[in-house]
């Protein structure tokens, strides 16, 4: 259980040749970049080290690029971006997973209108009724401002009756939007699994997300890459499994349970408790990402 609470990235960045950053909870809060985030990204890339944004966004990267630009995070601020939506689309395109064998090309999507593009230019058709579908793609809740996973129980029970497999394009259970906690697609997938449904999840913490990121960075030695994330369940678990050093950002998804505000770092005892809960240890811990 060895970790170090640090004030910023300045003293450790020089030990790495590339960086993997989470988006929600690290770079932005859903509305705006966190104070210090853009400066940190600029500093990380200052000496030519590449930076990739690895996000459990259920959309392909081009939509996320547009979203970030509107938020003031320009395309010049990072080198690469990879999303769980990209990985889901790749699975649709390659059809390599046994779960999809025999499922056909017609799917029912659970998610908001903004979650689009996964099947674009591929031989798949989105249908309006679950009775017409061979499988489900879950990108989130239709209205995540008011809905909870329980609102989908009846729909999921019908999907289970028809033995429909589910592709989950965002394994996150929740995310912070501003100061509010919002349910994500992973919470619906968890309920479907609880009911007995078959689910395939894409993104962090699964190996394909980190293998893809390392490939884009052009660095295959995991000891030369630092991953920064705010979720023990996805970011830190995935980084540890991939052999990467990691920074846990306390001001993201765990801030509410720790009672943290304004980018304060958690106490050692709080980090120790969450390490016991999740069974993985970050290399470093800080409040918000800053230099």
Short description:
The protein is α/β, with parallel strands linked by helices and 291 residues long. 30% of the residues lie in helices and 18% in strands. The protein contains nine helices and 14 strands.
Overall shape: it is: globular
Structural class: alpha/beta
Based on CA atoms alone, the radius of gyration comes out at: 19 Å
- State the separation between the terminal residues, measured CA to CA: 25 Å
Outline the low-pLDDT stretches: none
Name of the CATH homologous superfamily of the largest domain: HAD superfamily/HAD-like
| CATH-level-2 architecture of the largest domain | 3-Layer(aba) Sandwich
Q: CATH topology of the largest domain, which one?
A: Rossmann fold
Separate helix tally: 9
CATH class of the largest domain: Alpha Beta
What is the helix/strand order? EEHEHEHEEEHEEEHEHEHEHHE
Approximate helicity band: 25-40%
- Could you report the average pLDDT, rounded to the nearest whole number? 95
- Number of E-type strands: 14
| Largest sheet geometry | 7 strands, parallel
**Beta-strand percentage range:** 15-25%
Provide the spatial order of strands within the biggest beta sheet.
Answer: 1-14-13-12-2-3-4
Number of domains: 2
